[in-house]
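User: I'm curious whether this sequence folds into something compact or stays loose and floppy. Could you predict its structure so I can see for myself?
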Amino acid sequence: MSVMLTISGVLLFLAALLIGYRVLAGPNSLDRLVGVDCLLAIAMCGLTVWTVYTRDTTVVPAIVALALVGFIGSVSIARFRVRDEQ
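Assistant: Here's the prediction. I'll summarize afterward.
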């Protein structure tokens, strides 16, 4: 079981690196927004893997709070997004 959790953690870390590059080098603000949403989802998945590994459920409210903040942030930024100059 711990081998699978280790592999999951490594893959999540690699995904976070790739998405971090997309956030920094995104050609427009919408690409950066999608990248930040993906980073938030990867953080939630990482916390879930940590919760399974430690069998400590006190982190679950933080995961729910991250999901709520991510949803509200995405909706508000998408609503008030200004077109990029090209």
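Summary: Residues 12 and 42 are 6 Å apart (CA to CA). The chain has a mean pLDDT of 89.
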